[in-house]
Amino acid sequence: MSGWEAACPACGASLVFSLGSSLLRVCDHCGVAVARRGTDLSKHGRVAELIPTPSVLALGLEGRYQGAPPFRLAGRLQVDHGAGTWDEWLMAFADGNWAWLSEAQGRFHYMGQAALPPVARHGEVRAGDTVDLGPPGTFVVTEVRTARFMSAQGELPFVAEPGGLLHYVDLSGPGGQFATLDYGAGETAEALFVGREVALGDLGFRDLPDEEARRHRTGGQTLSCTQCGGPVEIRVPDQSQRVACSYCGSLLDVTKGLAVLDAVARVAVQPLVPLGSKGRFAGAEWTLIGFMERSVTVEGVRYPWREYLLYEPRRGFRWLVEANGHWSFVEPVHAGDVKGPPGGARPATWQGKTFKHFQSGQARVDHVLGEFYWEVARGDLVQTDDYVSPPLMLSTERDASEVNWSLGTYTTPEEVQEAFRLDAAPTRPTGVAPHQPWPWAAQARSVYSRSLMFLAILLLAFVVLNILGGRTVHQASVPLRPGLVSGSPEAAVFTDPFDINRPGNLEVRVQAPVDNSWLHLDGALINEETGAVDAFDLEVSYYHGRDSDGSWSEGGTSARSYLASVPSGRYVLRLAPQWETGRAPGSYDLRLRSRVPRFHHFVLAGLALCAWPLVLLWKHMRFEIERWSESDHPWVESSE
Ligand SMILES: [Zn+2]
Ligand SMILES: [Zn+2]
Question: Which of 40, 98, 117, 223 has its CA 20 to 30 A from that of 198?
Fold first, then answer.
């Protein structure tokens, strides 16, 4: 990398443009930004001193990334978009190509140049818009911003006035891709960069300070509150922008010597888990560094919730959110991985999972305590939309210039207690949370499947018993001699004695060749040993004919009656018949069967088996009604 050498037009020191595409070079000697066009050099303003950031990188560091030719960090640009300063490192590859390595909040993004498709002007882009970037795919706009060119070092691939404004649009695309549309100082897009998050270890840097030294550099510090004098702990000094004093509640600017931004008289809300606590979630130990209470107001009613900011040096920031005693562990998700535009009642999908729209609202920051990595202020407003698929909740927060998506996982107070090793569960939940899983779900599944299994067994048992069950204990054909009078004592008969060997029910079945007539039997089962009598009656009637609607029939030529719980013993049956005068059947057939399976017993057993599943279904429905009662789509309209 020999490059092109010239003398600084301001101080005469030697200037090297190592990269063919470098258009601006900050003089190492005098700090003036020198632009080149061909071989002409022109002086721009003097760049400001570099702002101290916690970066472990430095100009001149060499590395290798994913099989590309070796690269060298040839330039450094510091920009500020109003929520802190970040570094953009110019990676100059040995083959003359270049890319940006963007570093913010301890995270790195490799951003390579890509062909710029026609895109909207900067002023016309809104957060949440989708943009077709050609080969890289369709992206979602996550930020529309204007940053200030704060400082620079080495070479830059564009010409810009130090201290000037730079317009850009950040996008999130499929498969974790990121993109930046660079508008320079104007309204028209000048360049497109597409890339993804990379770990520092992937960049193959040589001579990098080790992680331990880095953590040591960024360790916590204790300062004094400029408002009340109380100790203010800054646990993540390299990233925190704001801190709210735990003693007086005043909001202080970490980047400006704890200048008081918003003085308040007292701390209005205390966190349930103290600031500085360490808790284990998702396989890492997080430090609780900030706390705030936010709320939405719907029809004059304020609905507050509390958010706990967690920090882990290698993973960044997460949230623990508590509302009505229910908790969520919240992680950021790429906007490009979410399908479904924010702000609609339509469902959203993420990783193939569909989330139902739950609620939209405007969230307001009411109280803050501890540290924040952005310029938080009381009264901050964002538009929010929540989508649920228990135990997950997908949420978006947006304003005109920024869209963020996050994924919350339902967490019980006991899990929070265990994670932070608290003495007791921090809350007692009330109501049903939007993404709370139904607590009986696992039990219901096994109850439903077991009930189905038992019902199948019951049905099978009925079929088998019907085929095998019922022992005939007596069978006879009883003649009705001509000349007998219906209902007369002479017509009554006793059967031969028969034995019932096992107690159970007794089925009496009578078949008579009645035809447009009837036969009625007054029966009595008499136990020969005890004299006990069990009375019953039975009627066979069969009528048929033809009328204007066609042929009809009613009844049949057989009937049966059941006697319950007949003890074993020797019995006779007395039968006193009556019939339609003049239409006596010549005889009737009698059959007695013991222990006959009854269908209604099985029906009752089936209902008993269904009782618990039905109760569970009812409970589940009540739970879902309560869940959705607080949403924009209640199942049951409230009476208010
Ligand atoms: Zn110079
Ligand atoms: Zn204070």
Answer: 117
